[in-house]
What we know:
By secondary structure, the protein is α/β, with parallel strands linked by helices. Helix content is 38%, strand content 14%. The strands form three sheets. Strands 1-7-6-5-4-2-3 form a seven-stranded mixed sheet, with helices on both faces. Strands 10-11-13-12 form a four-stranded antiparallel sheet. The protein has a two-stranded antiparallel sheet with strand order 8-9.
Amino acid sequence: MTDTDFPAEGRGVDELLDEMRVERQGDLDWRGGKAFSLVYNTDDPELEKLQHEVAGMFLHENALNPFRYATLLRMEGEVVAAARSLFGAGAGSLSSGGTESIFLAVQTARDHARARGVMAPELVCARTAHPAFAKACKYLDVTQRFTEVGSDGRADPDAIAAAIGPDTALVVASAPGYPFGVIDPVTEIAAIAAERDVLCHVDACLGGWLLPFWEQLGQEVPPWDFRVEGVTSLSADIHKYGYCYKGISTINYRDPELYQRQVFMYDDWPGGLYASASAAGTRPAPPIAGAWATINHLGSNGYLRLARRVLAATEGFLAAVDQVDGVRAEPSPDMSVFQIAVDPDSDRPVDIEAVGDRMDERGWNMDRQQGGLHVMLSPGHDKVAELFGSDLQASVADQGSASGKEHTYGGVVDGA
Length: 416
Ligand SMILES: Cc1ncc(COP(=O)(O)O)c(C=O)c1O
């Protein structure tokens, strides 16, 4: 290295691979079942083998112009069609992730409102809506209006109705929301939106690829998709419970004409027509090919099998939490995502942050949020529920004091 940060000499393949292999041993170990978000672990070596092969096979293709790659074009179309049949309707596209899908829904709603003469559009959502909405509103110059949630953690339809005004372009419901894993009352919220002639987006980034199978397992799932009148768009991430590797989500609209507001066409330059359906220009092909391969490898049966394991993990973890005096899953979740909080009905003094620290010392990676510890379960968690329960029991017993870890979710790399 010279005194600049740019490497002066190129280094050999083996040396670089060795360095990275060694260093990443210290990174999050998601295979052991002691990590909760960031990776959706199927614990399925066949699927993993397929995904590694596919990622390598399509490493260099560019989906900016899918017409140059007939295979990519077909696969993308089939993934969009699979999403359409899962959610009950819709025209739409793939995107790089939940945040991009949400950006696209907000942009579409904003432009739809502008076309109707609303020049300062607003978005109404509950406090529990994902920060991607705040980010989209910031970038797209849309005013965000928040409503408080009820004690069950769900968006309050009355509060949403009261927050809708003449400039409201979009109302949001989550299925489920990230913090508590509860599904907002989509039917009521979408009805209010329709009555006020406002678009309604369902953020099913988390639930979209699990809830259809959860329902088939006999679980009670309140209506949340295009079967609900008034839902106009829906985001759902294949890189979450669709079990593909990162970089793939779906955004769907009930009305194909509304979807057209998302599409960008431009030919006012010397380079020819530039057409693009999502925010990115150049698009990596591996997530598209990976999504297609994953969906076709698993099929409905495979998704059902994995949903059964997520359900077993959820029942196991919730039962384990239930056994520990002083904490509880609060509010009660609708899915495999929940918060462990102090139990207000127990006399046992619990510092939930300290419990998180003791769990971390026992090898768990507990995500902190303001009201407790966040848990998001994958199929691979079905084998660690008992261990989690005994470690939680021990961590409440020897909780001691908290180290003051921050409540964080994402992170920023210093760009200076
Ligand atoms: C409910 C919900 N919406 C949106 C997102 C954003 O998804 P992404 O991180 O893929 O951008 C997440 C991520 O966890 C989420 O849980």
